[in-house]
Amino acid sequence: MSEERIVTCAYCGHEYHNGTPTSQHSGVINRFNVCDKHPVRELNSVNKVLRSALVGLVGSDDKAVLKQMVIGLRSVGIPSEDEICAINGILALINTRDSMHLK
Question: Does one domain contain both 29 and 50?
């Protein structure tokens, strides 16, 4: 006799019965992608808007290009405040790529 296991979204109450693909750990973790009430969904939406704006300012979202930009900025001799600001923006794009599952 197998016991029925039901996983429930803590934010909207949606139920995933045992045996459905989303009842597994990865499905539950990704619930925020479809749950209108999950707070992480709003954060991801805001992150996408901010990344898009930053890509527009920097001019690229390609990881290799971004790394070359950092090297170039360190060698051109611009004021240190401008260099720090530009490099921090580029590093933010590089560092958030993996967390947002971008290639």
Answer: no
